[in-house]
Amino acid sequence: MVMSAQDVVGVIESDPGAMRVLRATADLGLPDWWIGAGFVRNRVWDAISGLPVSPERDVDVAYFDPEKLDPREDARAEAQALAALPEVPWEIRNQARMHLRNGGEPYTSTLDAISRWPETATCVAVTLRDDSVRLESCHGVRELV
For residues 89 and 18, what is the distance between their CA atoms, to the nearest angstrom? Predict the structure, then answer.
C-alpha cells in the first residue's frame, strides 16, 4: 500500500483517540505546537499493516516559545494535559531550548527542531488548525510509508 500525505492525514482524522489528543493539546494554548514521532508513525505503520492502533507509548508534543525557556513550563503544560487526558503518556517540550540539550545551533521554530530529529520517518508532525488536521513531513512521507 502506497500512501500519500493526504492518506496520512486521513489515518489521523479517522482515529477518534488521535483527535481527542489533538483537541486536548490545542486547548493547552501552546504556541507553534505539533505532535510528532511515534504518534504519527505508529498509526501509519499500523494502517499499512492492517493492524489496530497501537497503545500510546508517549505523545511527543513539541512547541516553540523563546519567552518561556524554564523547563517548569513544560511540566505545567504536562500537568494540564494529564488532567484533561490522564491515560495519555504526555511528553511536552519547548523546542526553543532543546538545542542546548542536543548540542546544536538554536532552532528557529518547532518544525525546524522536528526536521533535525534523528529518524526521518519520525520527522513528521500533526497539529490542528480550525479543527482540521495539518501534516508537516519535514523530509517527505516516503520514509514513513
Answer: 13
Taking the C-alpha atoms of residue 121 and residue 119, their distance in angstroms, rounded to an integer, is 5
C-alpha grid cell, residue 98: 532543546
CA dist 112 and 43 (Å) reads 23
For the segment 76-97, what is each residue's pLDDT rounded down to a tens digit?
Answer: 999 999 999 999 999 999 999 9
Give dist(CA 42, CA 37) in Å, integer: 8
How crowded is residue 93: how many other Cβ atoms within 10 Å of its Cβ? 19
**Type of residue at 134:** R
Stated pTM of the model: 0.91
What tens digit of pLDDT does each residue of 36-90 get? 988 998 899 898 888 888 888 899 999 999 999 999 999 999 999 999 999 999 9
The cell for 18 is 488521535
Beta strands in the chain (DSSP E): 34-36, 59-63, 90-94, 124-129, 132-137
Task: Judge whether 97 and 7 are in contact, CB under 8 Å.
Answer: no
Q: How far apart (Å, rounded) are the C-alpha atoms in residues 58 and 99?
A: 21
